Each structure stands twice: as structure tokens, then as C-alpha cells.
Amino acid sequence: MTVVFWALFSILLCGACSIVETVLYSTRTIALVERLNERGIAELIAIKQKRLGDAISAILIVNTIAGTIGAGFVGAEAARIWGSSAVGVASAVLTFLMLILAEVGPKTFAATHAMELAAPAGRVLSVALKVLAPCLIVTRIVTRWMTGKDDAGLTRVGLARLISNAPAQGTLTAAESEVLAHILFAHRVTLSEIRTPIELVVSAAANAPASTLLDRKDVAAFARIPLWQESKRHIPTYVNQRSALRALLQGADAGHVLSTFSHALPQIPEESSIGRAIDLLLHAQESIGAVVADGEAVGIVTLEDLFEALLGFDITDEADAVTGMRSEAETARRHRLQALWGRRGKWARGLDSR
Q1: Hey, where are the domains in the chain?
Q2: 188-333 architecture in CATH?
Q3: What is the pLDDT of residues 28-64, one digit of tens each?
Q4: Whose CB has fewer CB within 10 Å in the chain, the N or C terminal residue?
Q5: pTM score
Q6: Which pLDDT tens digit goes with each residue over 114-141?
């Protein structure tokens, strides 16, 4: 009976280690968050994110102790009962049972039922980490010395790969996956890639009469017209065409210069990211800004441009659909979007390092 006891001791303890280890590797943090109210799930998430190395060390310590002690006592009892010639047979039988009952069986079961076993695995690991705390201090020193660095955690590339695999698992649609990947790596896109070049910007002189808005046909498709001073690369203000025209209808003098109706135009550095530009425009409570480099305007950008680049969607304004006035700028904008779409697929697969 003693032989059976020690054999069961090794098999059960090593089997438990196999189950916990497989659950630790097989469960995804994103899926676990959905079951955060279950006891043990929060512990497992914390362990996976902050103490994965300690958890692996604890599992290996218990597994090694169980296997070594169990095998040693089984061999000793076999020699005592049946003689030294029985040690080899007992070891062979135990090895076979360990392989099937403590490795292959438990790991296969745990891999196919990982989410169901997540909560108990979290509780077991939490207790094991507390009990083995002194041993883990030593293993932590050794592993850090060998690796030379701590675990970096989840990276943008790693998250992008999770997102790219989500459609195959039915978690997200392909369109949702692409949009999320686009947002995830939008910080790599600067205004130099999405601005409307200054050469294509429809603007007016700040000292031009307000009647210019009625006389020029090329401004009809734009709600906000940048106003330049001294040169077309110096555009500190803009005029809201609708507000100005409303003022004229209400009796304002058409001879007044456009600067009378002007608003300050936010100046945004060309190297700014999409997120930074959106923050600046929202803080200024404006929807258009001048993109500047080396002290002069090199283009303009609107919230529409920024959200198109952020989401990867073509946002069409009503004026775009009914007039041809913006055709040249519109063509350039679509080319920029297509270039970003080409990078989006690489972002989703974590291949674009730019």
C-alpha cells in the first residue's frame, strides 16, 4: 500500500501542476476580464500580468519535488518488499503512469477546458506563491540574472496580433479588426502624411473685402476659408463662410475686410501625431488648423482629416458629393488614405515597424 500511496502522491501532484501550467499558458487575459466577478479570476489575471515568472517557478518547484520524492519512495518501497531487482520494474511502471496520468492526460484536458479551470487555477497559484515565497526570491534572482531583463508585458505589436486573429475566432468582424489596428498604430502617423498641401489650399487675403465670398466660385465648397497675411504661407486666421454670409444678409457692410469676421487659426507642428493634433484642435474648440514647419504654413488639416486617418474610413462631406470644386484636393486626400490603408494590413499583423 505504501508503494501505491507514493505513486499516487507523485501522479496527482504532478498532474495538478500540469493542469495549472496549461491553464496559465492557454487562457487569454482579454477573455478572463469578462469573468472578473468570479473568485480566482482576478488573481490569475494579476499573476499573468505581473508574476508570470514566479508562477512558472512555483509550478516547477512543486512538480520537481513531487516527482523526485515520489519516485524515490516508490523505488525504496519496491526494493524493501520485492527486492532490489524490482526497482527497475517499479521505476518503468511509474514513469509510464506519470507520462499518461500526470502529463499527457491532464494537459490535454486542461487545454480543452482552460476557461472552466481558470478560477480554481488562479486560487491554487495564489496560495502556492504565498507558501513558496522564500524559494521564489532565489529563483527570481537566478532568472533575472539569466535573462537580464524583466518581462515587458503586452506590447502594441502583441495586441495587434491578438486583434488580427480575432475575426478567425469570431470575436470581431474583419472590419472591426482593421479599425482597431488602425487606431492602435495611429500614433505613427504624423500631419506630414495627412495634411492638405498649402498649394492646394483655397484661401483669401485677410484684407480682401467680404464680398469676395460672393464673387469667388472656388470658395463655395468650403465652410472655413484660411486668411493669409503677407504671403500664402502665413495664415494666422480663418473666416467661417456661413457666419460671414449670415452677417452680410443681416446688413453688414460688404466692403468690410474679411479679417473683420476672422477667428484665430490653431498652428500645429507638422511632426505632430494624429492624437496630438486632435487634442490641440479640441482644446482650441476649432475644427481646422494650419500645419506649420520652419515658421511657415505647409498645409492645413481638419478634424475630418484626422478622424479619417485615425479610423481608416473615408468620411464624405455633402459638399464633396455635389460639387467638383474640391476635386484636386480631394484626389490628394484619397491618395493619402490609400497609402494609410496599405499600411493598415501590416499594422494588424504587427509587421510595420515605422
Answers
A1: 2-152, 188-333
A2: Roll (3.10)
A3: 887 898 888 889 999 999 999 888 889 999 999 999 9
A4: N
A5: 0.57
A6: 999 999 999 999 999 999 999 999 988 8
